[in-house]
Amino acid sequence: MSCAMLLQCRHSCKKGNRLLRMLATSYSSFVKDKAYINGSWVAAANGNTFSVINPANEELIGTVPDMGIQETQSAIDAAHVAFDTWRKTTAKERSAILKKWFSLIESNKTSLAELLTKEQGKSMADSIAEVTYGASFFEWFSEEAKRVYGEIMPPSTADRRLLIMKQPIGVAGIITPWNFPIAMITRKLGAALAVGCTAVIKPAEDTPLSALAICQLGEEAGLPAGVVNVITTSSKNTSDVGKLLCESPRVATISFTGSTKVGKILLSQSASTVKRVSLELGGNAPFIVFDSANIDKAVTGAMACKFRCAGQTCICANRFLVQDVIYDEFVKRLAEAIKNQLVVGNGLDEGVNIGPLINEAAVNKVDDFVTDAVKKGATKIVGGNKNSLGKNFYEPTLLVNVTTDMECMKDEIFGPVAVIIKFKTEAEAIKIANSTDVGLAGYFYSQDLGQVWRVAEELQVGMVGANESLLSAAEVSFGGVKQSGLGREGGKFGVDEYLEMKYICMGGI
Ligand code: SIN
């Protein structure tokens, strides 16, 4: 998402907050207490449910069915049957449903954002931005549906004609995380539906309500029964449900966004059926600021990249590398920005731009990174403690004198903690940036054109922000290299994850 879009979202968020005060309960029409299988809203077979809690204040937002193997199998069967007719619809018909779905999300943006803030914790500005971003995938793929072309190759023998056609792969198992409960569904589902696949979605246990809300609008948009199914599960059943999706011969592809650890488990479980697997896994993004950088822009970029969604995105800057000549100036300016610009609190409150982390375990993990770094010699410039606002809050933090042996340099922090390491040369920065076995996003600020090309080429990542720190958009291909994943989502290549190529050799011409 561009800065302009983000600013626009922040502006519309202010308007949104005013509207919220007028329509205080508008989100509640989206709070479902059933999951969605074969076109019906259903409870778990054994009646079990689990609670969805607002991480800002522990308020109960709703309860949803705690489903397991039995319901997952029903959802897979429904998607399998529906595939037979959905794959035969025209691209124009599928496009019309996605377009309508996009419009419905757009026109319910404020209510969806409120629900998202309640169950995920992110600020209203971040929620409005996510709903906008999420909806954009349905718009994008409604257009791409019509552009799934095959190819005709010149034959080497005169009596043959050779062609490749592309066909939908089948049922997609879609497993999504809690940090982007809407956009991570639409980025996968938009592509799958556009080309004629059907889907079984398992949203994260922390954020099932946003997934069900999106599904409710899909029903309104005219989705036929069985084409999209949503299974809700607590953490107790999550691994069984994931395993069934990976091992079922009726599921043709798995698309997962989440940790590298879980991605590896799903990949190995999918081996039994030689399934297509797309993985968008963890990152450890370097954010390099060279001496030639425009410091104003670098600080603005750093703030957006590090603190968006309280630092809980896979592409958040994880390691700041700052060149020696501008190091002191950059640290001073970033510290001022953190102190002056960030307002922590309940994401629904006006002016708040950092909400809680998803749960207490996440806060403890972030605190462990800070404790380890300080023990090994890092200095706290801002924050560095759990926040007195509640057990799920952490203070926006800036650590300096960071070294490569600290855990925060090796692993995703996933919280509002910026850590800075000083470097001397471009070669040294590249070496540190690439010294990790993951490679999702990487960012750098430099006004030296030669350096911009060199560094963009050298960073071992799937996505580069060169003088830009917000790079997500529907029209680009999102994904990583090394252990950050397999495949690409969004953009014109996003549909490839859901297509098979079929070669047809026509003889006797
Ligand atoms: C993610 O954190 O996985 C997604 C972030 C994005 O699409 O911007």
Care to describe what's here?
This protein has 509 residues and is of the alpha/beta class. It has two domains: 36-281 and 484-504, 3-Layer(aba) Sandwich (Aldehyde Dehydrogenase, Chain A, domain 1), CATH 3.40.605; 285-473, 3-Layer(aba) Sandwich (Aldehyde Dehydrogenase, Chain A, domain 2), CATH 3.40.309. It has 15 helices and 22 strands. The longest helix has 21 residues, at 124-144. The protein is globular, with a radius of gyration of 23 Å. It starts with a helix and ends with a strand. Succinic acid is lined by residues 179-180, 183, 257, 280, 313-315, 472, 478.
Describe, in short, the structure shown:
This protein has 509 residues and is an alpha/beta fold. The protein contains 15 helices and 22 strands. It has 2 domains: 36-281 and 484-504, Aldehyde Dehydrogenase, Chain A, domain 1, CATH 3.40.605.10; 285-473, Aldehyde Dehydrogenase, Chain A, domain 2, CATH 3.40.309.10.
Number of E-type strands? 22
Average residue pLDDT: 95
Number of discrete helical segments: 15
Characterize the biggest β-sheet: 7 strands, mixed
Sequence of strands across the biggest β-sheet: 14-15-16-13-12-18-19
Task: Determine the structural class based on helices, strands and strand pairing.
Answer: alpha/beta
CATH topology of the largest domain, which one? Answer: Aldehyde Dehydrogenase, Chain A, domain 1
Q: What would the principal axes of the Cα set say about the shape?
A: globular
Euclidean distance between termini CA atoms: 51 Å
Q: Per DSSP, what share of the residues sits in E-state strands of 2 or more residues?
A: 15-25%
Q: List all distinct small molecules, including ions and cofactors, that are bound in this structure.
A: succinic acid
| CATH architecture heading of the largest domain | 3-Layer(aba) Sandwich
